[in-house]
Specification:
Largest sheet of chain B: 6 strands, mixed
Distance between the termini of chain B: 36 Å
Number of helices of chain A: 0
Oligomer: heterodimer
Helix content of chain B: under 10%
Structural class of chain A: mainly beta
Strand content of chain B: over 45%
Largest interface: A-B, 26 and 25 residues
Strand content of chain A: over 45%
Radius of gyration of chain B: 13 Å
Largest sheet of chain A: 7 strands, mixed
Shape of chain A: globular
Low-confidence stretches of chain A: none
């Protein structure tokens, strides 16, 4: 157990639908990062939150959005899903000191 | 686009041999990190080397960093079957702040 909890582990949904992925960071970590991993694109940074505020944005589609709540858990919302959104979605957290990220075990999203 | 590129893409060795993976990147960095990922699971942080460091050790891992060549190498000594995994280098580019950019990874297979 890395200390970063992601739910659900697996999600199968139809095109056009909307899903919410949830992440609880490691205790004490204020930063949360979302990454998408697919075979053709590799690990792509989506978005970062720090203590409730958006800090950095990467290759995140307009159909995707995220937020970090006062208790520091984060949610990634994916809407109008397309087949190409099928991927592993990882959440990671970090504290201060630049000692690396702690990753969750991911949510495998399959869009059919 | 990905900052780091690993070489080789895949590596197959016998147990007990050493494994060397290389990473090249494009821009100035604060630090470079290596992560391991077992098939379909979350990434695990292995080691971090800062831009002002040239070499770092952790157990059977040795990492070097050459900022003039924008390259790094990860050496795993006396490999074990349990080392079979994908290995990613990740850079913390100065221009992006505290946000890791991952390479495409090296798939390592250690045969027993």
């Amino acid at each position: 157990d890395s200390g970063v909890t992601q739910t659900p582990k697996h999600l199968i949904t139809a095109t056009g639908q909307r899903v919410t992925l949830r992440c609880s960071p490691r205790s004490g970590d204020l930063s949360v990062y979302w990454y998408q991993q697919s075979l053709d694109q590799g690990l792509q940074f989506l978005i970062q939150y720090y203590n409730g505020e958006e800090r950095a944005k990467g290759n995140i589609l307009e159909r995707f959005s995220a937020q970090q709540f006062p208790d520091l858990h984060s949610e990634l919302n994916l809407s109008s899903l397309e087949l190409g959104d099928s991927a592993l979605y990882f959440c990671a957290s970090s504290g201060t000191g630049g000692i690396g990220y702690t990753f969750g075990s991911g949510t495998r999203l399959t869009v059919v | 686009s990905q900052q780091g590129e690993e070489d080789p893409q895949a590596l197959s060795i016998q147990e007990g041999e050493n494994a060397t993976m290389n990473c090249s990147y494009k821009t100035s960095i604060n630090n470079l990190q290596w992560y391991r990922q077992n098939s379909g699971r979350g990434l695990v942080h292995l080691i971090l080397i800062r831009s002002n460091e040239r070499e770092k050790h952790s157990g059977r891992l040795r990492v070097t960093l050459d900022t003039s060549k924008k390259s790094s190498s990860l050496l795993i000594t006396a490999s074990r079957a349990a080392d079979t995994a994908s290995y990613f280098c990740a850079t913390d580019p100065m221009e992006y702040g505290n946000k890791l950019v991952f390479g495409a990874g090296t798939i390592l297979r250690v045969k027993s």
